[in-house]
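Ligand: adenosine-5'-diphosphate. Inputs:
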Amino acid sequence: MGPWASRLTGKYLFRGLRFRLAVSYVFFFTILLSFLGIFFRQALRSILDQQTRDLLTEEWSAVKGYLRIDRGKIDWFYDPEDPDEEFIVGRMKQVYLLTDAKGKVLEVSDKYRELGIEKPNEIIGALQSQKAVWQVRKTTEGETFLIRSGPFIDDNHHVFYVALGRSLAQSEGIVEQFTLYYFLWMPVLIISSAFFGWYAARKALTPLNEVSLTAQRITGSNLTAQIPSRGAQDELDRLIDSFNRMIERLNDSFTQTRQFSTDVSHELRTPLTAIRGQLEVALFTAKTEDDYRNAMMDALQDVERLSQTIRAVLLLSQAESGQLALQLQMLDLAELARDFVDQFQIPAEDAQVTLTCSLPDECVIEGDKIQLGRMLSNLLSNAVKYTPRGGTVHVSVALRGDNAEIVLEDTGMGITADHLPHIFDRFYRVPDRNPERGLGLGLSFVAWIVKAHRGRIDVESELGKGTKFTIWLPAIVPVIHAPEAYAAPSETAS
Ligand code: ADP
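Predicted complex:
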């Protein structure tokens, strides 16, 4: 844990993911708790208020049974022997007002007086509306009461105004107590959540730290290292998987680059050594002008071959590093093949090889005309080059479903099974067979072009009988997002 642990101190601790995770956890938990507290407080208050309202409504209906007004005489009609009735009426009269229809006070309790008696015009207004009115009022000491008032009609159909009240002190007390307990406990909950958050964040991040430690151990020379998957199939495993695949791609790319530079330096060294030899011969052993001329001619030929190799290598490395982007357009592959078969008739005749083709009238696909032309040219030149006199080369193009199929078949010398898997590798030449030495880059190009078009190439060959290349190209090139689009051509080769 060395470097990691030492970095997890001081300033880094507060910028660290663990700290931020824990803080966000506490933050959201606090907000959630506050909202819950406010919500429950409101809910409790409305439940208690509703209870008081229900009680007042009950009392209000009960008033009709107990209160009798006969020609100005007010009488509370109940059995004084019955303690229940006495209690009910006593409680009603604690906060109570009775006025006539003009607002003249007929009876009022002390508590109600304290709350303030309505003005006559307010009472007249309330009676006109004929509805029960609910109000919340406070005494001078701050005690809150819920008042229900409305018309009361006696047996003689006279209208009176009655108001009954009930203290809300008890329900408010309950709400206050709840609030107090809740918000006293909240900091305790928040602190516990902070501890929990800190612990949970550590638990969640431990595998990430392990991944990071493994990643630190991977260096340029140790690119085969892989982070072991945890088998949890979670986000982290996906990250590990992507990371491992990235390392694999890097490793492939490094290996290719190393191989490429080895191949290139080897390929350049051979003609350079030859040129040097020829020049030394010219310098030390040539006597006549012809000797000089011959040595110079040989050197020039090798210089030409050298610059050819450099041009091809440059182009291939541009292609493989993605600098040579495809210029896609709709093109007729049948027409393109026809053009190239025509172009190769003369070299084929020179080599006494019969070049034939079976092409449809039209085979329109999306592709890069120049690169597809280069592909056909490389394949045709190989076929003519590696087919002995009297042989045939046949080219066919056909549309099969969503793919165009190009087949290039010859009756040439063929390739043995041990060489076949390597023919798409850079600078690979089947040894001891070649009439004229090629660069060994033609098929690498072909493979790259096929791969860049998201196509596939297949080769079958039998020694002494011939070789058949089959290429499938999608009629419409799918959009390429992945960076491996321009990976090594050898991967495409089958
Ligand atoms: P070169 O420049 O040597 O032709 P290529 O990459 O085009 O390089 O081909 C690689 C090797 O594959 C060649 O050296 C050749 O031996 C073999 N090859 C390619 N095409 C054919 C073919 N049509 N018939 C037989 N051998 C072939």
